Amino acid sequence: MTAPTVTWLMSAYDATWHAFPSEQIGDDERTFYQALCDHCVPTRHVERTPPRAFCPACLVIYGTHLPDDQRRAWRC
Ligand SMILES: [Zn+2]
Predict the structure, then answer these.
(1) CA 71–ligand 1 middle distance (angstroms)
(2) Which of 3, 14, 41, 50 has the most CB atoms around it within 10 Å of its CB?
């Protein structure tokens, strides 16, 4: 299993940064994005700013997909 490639974007709905699959971000046809935690937000309601408040659910889902060697590196 490979780690999902995600982009952290702020949802204007809850002022929280969610992990969105990067293939959604590159798709101009989409009218909304769906985060790993199932949070949905219209594409014009996301903001591309450096993350401050991560969605705990997205963090957990993203973390469980990380390969073990990456996980160990994070712990240092
Ligand atoms: Zn989320």
Answers:
(1) 20
(2) 41
Q: With 0-12 CB in 10 A as exposed, 13-18 as middle and 19+ as buried, what is 69?
A: exposed
pLDDT in tens, 31-76: 999 999 999 999 999 999 999 999 999 999 998 876 666 656 655 4
- The answer as to whether 54 is a domain residue is yes
Q: Are 54 and 36 in contact (CB under 8 A)?
A: no
Q: Does 17 have pLDDT greater than 80?
A: yes
Note whether residue 76 is domain-resident: no
Question: Range of 38's domain?
Answer: 6-71
Number of domains in the chain: 1
In a domain, 25, yes or no: yes
Cα of 45 from ligand 1 centre, angstroms: 14
Whether residue 1 lies inside any domain: the answer is no
Q: Which amino acid is at 35?
A: A
Q: What is the pTM of this model?
A: 0.80
